[in-house]
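User: Let's play a game. I give you a shape written as tokens, and you guess the letters that built it. Ready? Here's round one.
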């Protein structure tokens, strides 16, 4: 099924993102720059690295498991994966920082 990757990706990650926002939305909102800048930088880096790996034939994606929408050569699901993974790490770091190190 073409939605397999997206379904499993969102089914695993979104509940954690939503839980983090449910328990720490004030902290995350006050520290939005500290959360989003690393997400953008790391996400773009991983997309570039993934594009190189796909172009070089290091790995590929089963067309029957993805939507078929690509950003360059990178499937949309991979783009979402990299940004969501970076978001989870960035949010977690901000939430676990000592209070005096947060905005």
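Assistant: Ready! My guess for every position:
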């Amino acid at each position: 099924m073409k939605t397999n990757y997206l379904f499993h990706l969102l089914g695993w990650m979104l509940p954690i993102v939503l839980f983090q926002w449910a328990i720490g939305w004030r902290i995350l909102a006050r520290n939005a720059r500290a959360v989003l800048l690393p997400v953008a930088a790391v996400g773009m880096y991983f997309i570039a690295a993934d594009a190189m790996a796909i172009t070089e034939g290091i790995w590929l994606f089963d067309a029957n498991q993805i939507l078929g929408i690509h950003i360059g050569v990178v499937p949309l699901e991979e783009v979402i994966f990299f940004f969501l993974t970076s978001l989870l790490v960035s949010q977690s770091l901000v939430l676990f920082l000592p209070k005096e190190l947060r905005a």
